[in-house]
Amino acid sequence: xxxxxxxxxxxxxxxxxxxxxxxxxxxxxxxxxxxxxxxxxxxxxxxxxxxxxxxxxxxxxxxxxxxxxxxxxxxxxxxxxxxx
Length: 84
Ligand code: SF4
Ligand code: SF4
Hints:
Elements (H helix, E strand, L loop, with lengths): L6 E5 L9 H5 L5 E7 L5 E5 L9 H5 L6 E5 L12
Antiparallel strand pairs: 1-4, 2-3
The site of one iron/sulfur cluster has 14 residues, from strand 1 and helix 2.
């Protein structure tokens, strides 16, 4: 885990519609569009595996329910706020 890896995300390969809104919106530029078709026939977005800050922007721009899950590392949680 690198210094900026305050968060982590999971993208559901089969729920993603490949719209790339998350790819464009991610300020850390850690998301890309993959080159494998999912079962819906879309090229799903992929996380590079490092550099996520846990900002949540990708989650809020994604139009597909449950396609993106954000995890915030506990050691970076603000006191009084909950974290995964
Ligand atoms: S939570 Fe923020 S930094 Fe992490 S992948 Fe989503 S938009 Fe990028
Ligand atoms: S915004 Fe959601 S549906 Fe669109 S590419 Fe990203 S994860 Fe897939």
